[in-house]
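User: If only I could read backbone structure tokens as easily as an amino acid sequence. Those tokens are not coordinates but codes from a learned vocabulary of shapes. Could you go through the record with me and say what the backbone is doing? Here is the record:
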Amino acid sequence: MEKSPLVKEKLIEQLRHQIHSLQTDQLVKIPSERDLAESFDASRVSVRAAIKILVNEGLLVQLRGKGTYIVPSVLLDTLYVLCSRDIKGNDPFYTNFLVEITNLAAKQAIKISMVNPEHPMESSIPSPLVIIGQIDDVTLDELKAASGQLFSIQRYAHRDDIIQIYFDDYRIGSKAAKTLYDNGHRTFTLLGGPDKYDSSRLRKQGFLEYCGQQGVQVQVITEKMNWEGGRRAADTLLSSGLTDAVFAVNDWMAAGFIQGLRENGYQVPADVSVIGCDDIPLAAQISPRLTTFSLDAKHLVEELLSAIHRNISNQTDSREQIVLSAAYVSRESVANIKQLRE
């Protein structure tokens, strides 16, 4: 005698059938887990497991804080991606982003086509075109004329003709300053990169403005945003006098800075607290583990593809901006001075 399918498998088939019946050329929100559990007379655990499988199949997409949606029927077969020449091949954030967008696009039967940043206009570039990193305005205008709608995961504050999805770098800097201040620190140093990079400039701005509101002076050291830049920053800071709290605008600088301190006989967080940003794998591997901010590349990709689908189905305009929050990751590189003094 045949065994009946498992409850979860039955539920998946029922949901899959309902998805196909409701699928249109637009995003369609499905009911909550509770409502689905009542509708199908199943537990919420089973519903949650079934949804996870259908998300992995590319039939559903979960947008944080908004719910779960049915992926539109195929309106898009190829997604064009252009990486700025400034993007390094080993940059962990952008590498992770490219992995996530490739995986999610594959689930939705979308091909990824990389555009040559050296000669972008040599190729026919239909819309949508995703820009990664910073591109000068002249090139952006040419790309827009050739492609139509542009999408960026970098903030272009002076442009309202590009759909932008990006993390709130200003808030990252402000949160880093507040965290250090709330832990009792009062002498601060900022390790920043060149202001031409929006992420560095905005993190620096958020940090400095919060410190200014608290009447805290900040020493600013500008270096290359890599390991060696962080090590050089350690030498610079030690020559002028060590402060008790440091915010580095990325984790590579923070890790190099910690190494530079260690080579000179100083310890983190005993002598100085350190916060980085990006939550690269190294941040959880160095000693002490680095307090940082996590930029969820998968969430970014989900929001990006959702915006692309909405634009194709005429549900949005070229001025849309989606600002994402980075998650604060507390680890051992920040000391609580208030507790140590008690």
Q: What stands out?
A: The chain has three domains: 7-70, 78-168+297-325, 169-295+328-341. The two ends are 72 Å apart (CA to CA).
